[in-house]
Design brief:
elongated; single chain; Double-stranded beta-helix; 15 strands; 8 helices; 4-stranded antiparallel β-sheet
């Protein structure tokens, strides 16, 4: 059609003037003006698709909405991927040595060990994330940040109130972690999930030991951990004290971190049983003794609802 408009010749679609009332000569004359240009656009950037097609996944729907600028006006101008992360905070002071020189600040070690996630382990993950009823209220794009599993509120340590609403998703993520890391020595009792969250710094002060993180969804603008980007389809094993940076991005981005909550040992017996029912992997020595009576026949850990002996 672009060639027809440029040349004014239409030997193969002569029916257009009769059936569609499209005047090819008028189109040719119009596009001769210098302020008009015809550009071939790929199928993923067709703005009219949202009016003519159906979308089965959330990330494609979000992309189609952004093509027609159907976004929250409060965050539209800030919701853009940047080529680099620029911070305006003060630089840390450089320590002085005894001789008056400047002591070299040791470099921060690379935080993660990367383990590939098999495609079969994520078969149901995207569907469960897409249909989940995430609580809204984030500063950009109505993002969500939730803690599932062990949590701590004004009533003390307890099983997160949202855990029952996300039961299938929690069990699927725990099953994924069991497939990627079958070693029972690694424990986890909570999930920290960021859905389209943007923030300069995100840490988990109530986590201890080793944590496991991965990113899901198609997006540009990676999430960072200690300055290192989280790569898709990869599980990053890192220290629980390491901080995340969630810069502005475009698309659909979900960051999942599994960790052992410091308040796990103070859970009630009912919450401890609920924790294991969700597939979290916690040693018997960490949970209340009454919660371990149901599995007294084996001194194991819970993993995806299945006992795995230590």
């Amino acid at each position: 059609m672009i060639q027809v408009c440029r040349t004014g010749k239409n030997p193969t679609m002569r029916h257009m003037g009769r059936t569609h009332r499209v005047n090819v000569h008028w189109l040719h004359e119009t596009f001769l003006h210098p302020w008009l240009d015809l550009v071939k656009t790929g199928t993923h950037y067709m703005r009219a698709d949202i009016f003519t097609k159906g979308f089965e996944t959330l990330d494609k729907w979000v992309h189609a909405m952004q093509l027609i600028n159907h976004v929250d006006p409060k965050c539209f101008w800030g919701h853009r991927p940047g080529e680099e992360i620029i911070t305006f905070g003060p630089e840390p002071p450089k320590p002085e040595s005894a001789t008056g020189g400047v002591v070299a600040v040791p470099a921060v070690p690379r935080p993660t060990t990367k383990i590939p996630i098999p495609r079969s382990a994520t078969r149901n993950l995207h569907r469960l994330i897409s249909i989940a009823d995430w609580p809204k209220g984030g500063s950009l794009n109505d993002s969500s940040s939730v803690v599932l599993g062990t949590d701590f509120d004004t009533s003390g340590p307890r099983l997160s109130l949202l855990s029952s609403c996300f039961r299938d998703l929690i069990r699927d993520i725990n099953a994924l972690l069991c497939v990627v890391i079958p070693d029972p020595s690694f424990q986890r009792s909570s999930l920290f999930i960021d859905v389209n969250t943007v923030g300069l710094v995100r840490d988990v002060p109530f986590a201890t030991g080793t944590a496991f993180s991965f990113v899901h969804g198609k997006h540009s603008g990676p999430a960072l951990i200690q300055g290192s980007p989280l790569t898709p389809r990869t599980l990053h094993v890192h220290d629980a004290t390491h901080r995340f940076a969630l810069p502005v991005f475009k698309g659909f981005r979900v960051v999942v971190t599994a960790f052992l909550h410091v308040a796990t040992a103070a859970l009630s017996s009912a919450d401890a049983r609920g924790l294991r029912d969700l597939g979290f992997r916690v040693h018997d020595a960490v949970l209340p003794s009454t919660a371990c009576d149901v599995s007294s026949s084996s001194s194991g850990v819970a993993c995806g609802g299945v006992e795995a002996g230590t």
